[in-house]
Each structure stands twice: as structure tokens, then as C-alpha cells.
Amino acid sequence: MQTLTVEREKSSQNKWAEFFRLYGAYLALVPALTAMLGSLYYSEIAGFFPCILCWYQRILMYPLSLIILIGIIKQDEYLPSYVLPFSIIGIFVSSYHYLLERGLSSFTESSSCVGVSCTIKYVEYFGFITIPFMALTAFIMITVIMGLTAWANRQVESE
Questions:
Q1: Distance CA 73, CA 89 (A)
Q2: CB of 25 within 8 A of CB of 68?
Q3: pLDDT tens column, 63-112
Q4: What is the distance between the alpha carbons of residues 105 and 92, in angstroms, rounded to a whole number?
Q5: How far is residue 20 from each of residues 99, 102, 138, measured CA to CA in Å?
Q6: What residue spans define the domains of the chain?
Q7: Among 17, 59, 72, 74, which is least packed, fewest CB within 10 Å?
Q8: How does residue 2 score in pLDDT terms, banded at 50, 70 and 90?
């Protein structure tokens, strides 16, 4: 009875591994493209001027769309290795920006922001969703998906 449960668990694990191995890059491309197009909309159409931390987040997000797309075309199993450094650093930058915007950072705004204030909230949906929060969410989604894709690739290699 116990071996049947173990076999079912392995079968379920294999299904998830196969799913993320095949579709992980496509899933990660969605938040990367959405974040890139959203930031372009906010700056070019809505007329919101990005602060310095917004620029840093863009510097980390924009290449992800291209890197992931090339990884999909080349079917590169090492794609998570290229994507994760950008997305993990992006999590830290976005988190810092969000904390700064909320007034929860121990650093003062003047220490990191020049030009447009990093505390301006151009949008605030539901009382907490701001542009840095949206970027943070996208970076977290990409990181989790790419982490699961790396796990899936290791599962396939070990079999």
C-alpha cells in the first residue's frame, strides 16, 4: 500500500516537472512582457515620469523579455540560470522602492532618489498596489516560475 502511495506521489511530481520543463519559459514570459508593456504605457501614454529606482527596475525587467524569448526559441534548458539573477536582484530593488514609497525604509529618500521623487504614487489600487508593487509582483512570479523550471530540469536529468 505504501509503495502505491509513493508511486502516485512520484507520478504527480513527474507531471509537474514535465509541465514546468515544457511551459515554464512561456509562463515566465507573460509577467515579463506585461511589466515591460505596462511600464511603457505608464511613462509614454499616461505621462508618468519614472524615478531612478523605476529606471533600475526597468533595466532589470526589459532584458528578461528578450532573454526568455530567445530561451524559448532555442529551447535552452539553462534559461533559469540567465533569468534568475535579474529577477532576484529585481525583487530587492522593487522591495526597497515599495518600502521607501510607504515610508517604511530606514533610509531617507534623498539618499537614493534624484530628480523625480521615488515616493510619488502615480497609481494606488486597493490602497496598496502601486507601480513598485506591480514590478515586485512580476519579479516574484518570474523568480518562482524559473525556480520551478530549474527544479523540473533537474528532475528530468536525474531520471
A1: 25
A2: yes
A3: 999 999 999 999 999 999 999 999 999 999 999 999 988 887 666 555 55
A4: 13
A5: 32, 35, 18
A6: 33-158
A7: 74
A8: low
